[in-house]
Every structure is written in C-alpha cells, then in structure tokens.
Design goal:
By secondary structure, the protein is of the alpha/beta class. It has two domains: 139 residues, Nucleotidyltransferase, domain 5 (2-Layer Sandwich), CATH 3.30.420.40; 167 residues, Nucleotidyltransferase, domain 5 (2-Layer Sandwich). Helix 9 links the parallel strand 10 and strand 11. Helix 1 runs parallel beside helix 2, helix 4 packs parallel to helix 6 and helix 4 packs antiparallel against helix 8. The protein is globular. The structure holds 5'-O-[(R)-(carboxyoxy)(hydroxy)phosphoryl]adenosine and zinc ion.
Amino acid sequence: MQNDVPITILAIESSCDDTAAAVIKDGKILANIVADQKVHEKYGGVVPELASRAHQQNIVPVVQAALEQAGITKNDLSAIAFTVGPGLMGSLLVGASFAKSLALGLNIPLIAVNHMQGHILAHFIKDEEEQKVPSFPFLCLTVSGGHTQLVVIKDYLEMEVVGSTLDDAAGEAFDKAGKIMGLPYPAGPIIDKKAKEGNANAFQFTLPRVADNAFSFSGIKSSFLYFLQAQVKTDQDFVQKNLNDLCASIQYTIVKHLLDKFRKAIEKYDVQDIAICGGVSANTHLRSSVAELGKELDKNVFVPKFEYCTDNAAMIAITAHFQYKAQDFSDQSVRPQARLSI
Ligand code: KG4
Ligand code: ZN
C-alpha cells in the first residue's frame, strides 16, 4: 500500500434501530449521520420488522448525506464497511446488502465490522480536537441495549471478553424499568434526566449476587416490578407522584451493580487505563461514578463523547480503518450474524 494514497472509507451501521453512515479519511471522521427511528417509541421496544423497513427507506438518503457532508463522491472511496453483527438479522441484512452492492459496483474492498468492537474502538475516533486515547492493554465496560461486557483490549483488533451478563443487558434494564413506569422507548435517557431531580436513596432494590465476572439485571427488574405493583394497589398515582425518585433509585441500583463488577475486574486485571462505551455510557450518573472510581484507584478514565456512545457509524468507520490497515477484507459471500462475539 502506498503511503501517499489516502484511505477513505464509507461505513454503514444498521444493526438495530438507527440507520447510520460515516466517512473516514486516514483515521479522521469527515461525516457522521444518524437517522433514528421514532416508530418504535410507542411499542416499548424495537419492532424488528418495522426496523428493517425503516432502514430500507433511510439508507440511501443517509449515505448520500454522509458523502455530501464529507465533500466527496463515491469514486473517492477506498472501501465500504458495514456492521456484520451482532444485531437484528433483518436490520443487518439491509446494511450488508447495500454495502456489498456498492463495493461490487465500485470494485473496491468490503470490510465486515463487529458492532461491539466498534463501540470499544469509538475511543480512537479522531475529530476536530486533539484528544487522549487509552493505551493497551485497557479494560472496557461495554454497556448497551443488547450487551453488558467486561473486555480486555490488547490491541486495536485483539480483544477478550472477561465478563458478561447472565440475562438482560444494562440498557434493557433501563428500558424495561421505564416501560414498567409507563415511559416510552428508549427509557434510558429519560430516566437519566428525571433522576437528576430525584432522591437516589428514596427506594432500595436488592442487588444481584452473581460471580465476580458476571452481571444480572433480571432480579433488579422483577423487584422493581413487584414493588411498584404493591404500591399501586394502595395508591394508583404512586408512579406519577414518585417518578423522579423512582428513576433516581433504579438508576442508582443499576449503576451500583455495574460499578461493583467493574471495580473487581480493574483490581483483577491490574490495568492502568479503564474505559466505558455503548449506549448506557451516555448515562451521566455512570460517567461521574466511573470518573470517581478512576480517581480512587488512580487509573486513567476514558469516556466517549455523547455522540459516540449510542449507535453510530463513526465507530464502525474507525474500526474499518484499522481493519483496512490490517488488510482484513471480506468477499461477497460474507453473511450477517445476529449473534457474534468479539
Ligand atoms: O449502544 P446502543 O445505542 O444500542 C445497542 O447497541 O444496543 O444502546 C442503546 C441503549 C438503550 O437501552 C438506551 O436506553 C440506553 O442505551 N441509553 C441510556 C442512556 N442513553 C442511551 N441508558 C441510560 N442513560 C442514558 N443516558
Ligand atoms: Zn450498539
């Protein structure tokens, strides 16, 4: 590969309910477009069939907008990247088919990116400002709507999952608690906002007892549900009257469980740099708690910018950039995988 030829990649992310496209040139993001899907709000969760249809409608305009924002045409591209998994199969298929056709039409390489690696490598996205990045090896708490993992990152494309959830993911715990309180999907950001006005000690929910390297959120959800059912029997307006306190208390419990496990893993793996990523890493209480934990344990803490926490294509683009440099390309037979480990 010649050094003077720029590496310009178009990356597409369509694993769940966001249709996203980004352009990266020599590791620097030139465009980052996300179209979210409001259609799921009233259903209390993502409806896979509706998500695929919305991706189909959004993908061409989103890619066009990304190319325009980057100030390039498709003929300037060196490769096309897409999310190969994990995710919803119907959603992944839309991005994969689009990326394959475009790469074939332009006769350029195709790069299949793991969504979870993308969340982690979001820490290496370079945009306008100079920023510090984690040094290898580092430990990352990956918390999204579909995953909760502890990952040791040894190099850009060399990662090991050292802990994970036995049942629900942290984002699911937020969303399900929100659904129980009658909040729209996704409830995580709403709970975060309301919690700021509430008392986190108002109500106590039992913390799960699981192995050091495991998380579990289904018990928290059940105790929250049973508690509310009991309260509503005596006061129908209990949730409305106590909404901010309920949000603060459930958020405190979820974050406490995450932090307890993160602390144990930091001690065990003895790394100097620690990070969080994924949609739930946008949570303000988690962000400030991890910053405090880092101070207490004398570790360097890395927290992504808000726009790179929830699903986006910039994280797929930076991962694709490292894969391009490693010549990690896929052929047209590559198939999306709903379940895919790091
Ligand atoms: O990473 P992401 O965008 O999609 C997946 O890969 O799953 O994560 C979405 C999840 C949702 O469950 C959403 O409620 C949660 O991230 N989330 C938050 C916040 N922002 C997004 N949870 C708590 N507090 C937030 N501020
Ligand atoms: Zn995600």
